[in-house]
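User: Can you predict the 3D structure for this chain?
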Amino acid sequence: MTIKSKLRIGLVVAIAALGVLAIAATIARAEISKRYGQALSKADLIYIATIRKDGNQSKAAPVWFTTSADNNAILIQTGPDTWKAKRIRRGSPALVWIGAADGPAFIGKAEITNDATVVNKILTDFRNKYWQNRVMGVGPSRAGFDSGARIAIRITPTRDLPEGFTSAPGRKARPLEAAR
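Assistant: Here is the predicted structure, written as structure tokens:
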């Protein structure tokens, strides 16, 4: 093999590796779209539904929320024994509507996290955003997280749902990823 052919092979391998890395980075970096970012900035609540074992959608429940520091995920909290927590622990995706049960919607990968940064962000942002938390102490507290009475959930968007998609408990849920 000549030096030129070795250089060509090396160049091809390097370009292929960069291409694979670029695709992987794009796939791994889910982000809240600008449209949803604007809707989230105006909303006090989001509505969350999960997928039951039988594949049907649960009823969408209104919850307080904040966004992650990198604006790539929605952060919520709940009790560890709620149906929402049990289903997410089992691997259920989250269906999220912004502002109303018929608002802009997306499907996201939901995961329970013990990350102190996420817990602190939830506590700080909820205190600043929700007067009920600030004035009356309603909602999550440090003691609740420390005792295990509250858990943090990170929801990373995986795909948008069509305009007008509404919550329909008992209906078969859409797949987490779009059909190819």
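Confidence is low (pLDDT under 50) at residues 16-29. DSSP finds six helices and seven strands in the chain.
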